[in-house]
Each structure stands twice: as C-alpha cells, then as structure tokens.
Amino acid sequence: MSVKIAIVEKKLSGEMKTIHEAIWNDTQISALDHANYLLVDGQEYEMLEGRLNVNSGLLEILVAAVIEDRETNKTEAD
User: Fold this and answer.
1) What is the end-to-end Cα distance of the chain in Å, rounded?
2) Whether residue 54 has pLDDT greater than 80
C-alpha cells in the first residue's frame, strides 16, 4: 500500500507552505511513529501534527522549521 503525503511548513507568520510531496510506502509511514523531526533539502523540521485529508486522499504532515540558536552552540573558547 502507498499513501500520498504532503509536508506542510507552518511559518512564524502563520502562513502554510507545502515544501514536499511524495508517495510513501508502508515502511515510511510506519517510521513516523519513531521520529519527531524530518530533514527536507538539508533543513530540519519538527513534526507538529498530521491530518488525513479524505477528500484529496492526502496525508498532510504539519512541520515547523528548527532554528538553530548559534549562541547556545558556541564553545567556551569563542
């Protein structure tokens, strides 16, 4: 079985933007139970929630970009 998914980013402004669409197999869908974050084109996103759109047959995964705080990642040598 396969499912069409859309990864939808919720921006700080409240805007929603589809950043990825694909057909996923059962194994990929099952992996969602074990992950809290996704990587899309090198950007890390936190998964917020999922929604099954019955009318379009689409599993929508709502995500928010992870913004790295460079100050907390500095070493004491800096």
Assistant:
1) 52
2) yes
